[in-house]
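Class, carefully examine what follows:
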Amino acid sequence: MAAPHSEHTDDWWRDAVIYQVYPRSFADGDGDGTGDLAGIRARLPYLVELGVSALWFTPWYVSPLVDGGYDVADYRTIDPAFGTLAEAEKLIAEARESGLRVIVDIVPNHVSDQHVWFQAALDAGPGSPERELFHFRPGRGENGELPPNDWPSQFSGRTWTRVPDGEWYLHLFAPEQPDLNWAHPTVRQEHEEILRFWFERGVAGVRIDSAALLAKDPELADFVEGVDPHPYIDQDELHDIYRSWRAIADEYQGIYVGEVWLPDSERFARYLRPDELHTAFNFNFLACPWQPDRLRRTIDNTLAEHAPVGAPATWVLCNHDVTRTVTRYGREDTGFDFAEKAFGTPTDLDLGTRRARAAALLTLALPGAVYVYQGEELGLPEADVPLDRIQDPMHFRSGGTDPGRDGCRVPLPWVAEAPNSGFGSRGEPWLPQPEDWPAYAADRQSTDPASMLTLYREALRLRRTVPGFGDESLTWLPSTPGVIAFGRGHGLTCVVNLAAEPAELPAHTDVLLTSGPLDDRGRLPQDTAVWLLA
């Protein structure tokens, strides 16, 4: 077991660049078609060369994989498809030796229906202590044939499932993901022990899935649109839970990253008070369309909501749930909304790629921490997964209207001329790779000075070595309509042109990096970004 480490005592997380690894799709070490820890360990040199600060791993625990690993059956065991606990410990140690910290993912709102607790609850029957760990209730209606309430699902469909003895259990996500009862002390104790289990193995932090959903209205009152408080989002009891968790993290100099989707900026900031979570994901920026006024307003709002509690902002363009940036920015609607996802949306990938390159420089120039989802540095588009290969429950629970999230989870291309684009040597990948995937392969991009990978590597190198980046303040600079321009200190300036006409550059002594070439008069073309030194 690893003891707490002094190297975590600095505030590395305030301006870190954290790379999200979706293990199932990163690299396949044993050739069975599924990404694994052996594949990740073999690719650590790539991640070091990329220049990121830390790695966030989505769930790698034992799971039936109904929801991509977010249906956890055992937090103390690595899923055999990925490897073993000993391999995970080696990966954590090897990453640390390479200068990369590790963040693991936990899913406290629910467990898998294969978890020993839930199986025991099904066997024990109504009124049993085992069922108190979940939300079992009798139904409404004359014979209990109706669900206990009308709560909307985080996916599509019902939030309640009836078991053979007549009771119903709550699941805000899929039926295979029963919600835990966080009012029960055993649930709290178990998760505190899970946190210690992973901190003692040397992880630097924990990402908390669906962090605002754990506590429920004890009466399980019906949901009424527009009426506060919401019966299962952002309950006040959550803050006591996270204060107890913060005390554990502080023992190990660890950090927490919360997945907190809240429209109220004041309520959002409460999770980032000094005795609660360290950071939280910024979904408003992720969902923001490629429009100058909207982007600037979102940046201002994000910085303003973090300022009162002294927490750093976080910036992310894409993750394992969201349409890839290149595809999204190549569409008429460049924002993101789960409710708007549909098959067959027209996309201009050349336009999307140009905008994604500019967005990368914009994001990496902002104050705070940045998250990069695997494959974004390769400029991967959203893949069209054949209907008979889709696995995401969001697709099936929508009745087939939602394409689901598999398109951003397709296994990565590593070597253009290798089988399966170098993802794995033998077995067919668990999701099919598009025919054009070799064109995006890392080996091909590594030698191309104009590639997305080269852009990311150089941007991350400059971010590490040039004064002015990090968690310092941002100052907006005068600019023409459609142009975003700001300074970061030490003469560092970022300019992004979203206008139709080329933009004149402000006074400067050096051009550090551009997302695309300047025009023949030294002006910044549309959908292009530049870093300057004044």
Q: What stands out?
A: The CA atoms of residues 96 and 508 lie 39 Å apart. Residues 1-9 have pLDDT under 50 and may be disordered. The chain is about 25% helix and 15% strand. The first helix runs from residue 23 to 26.
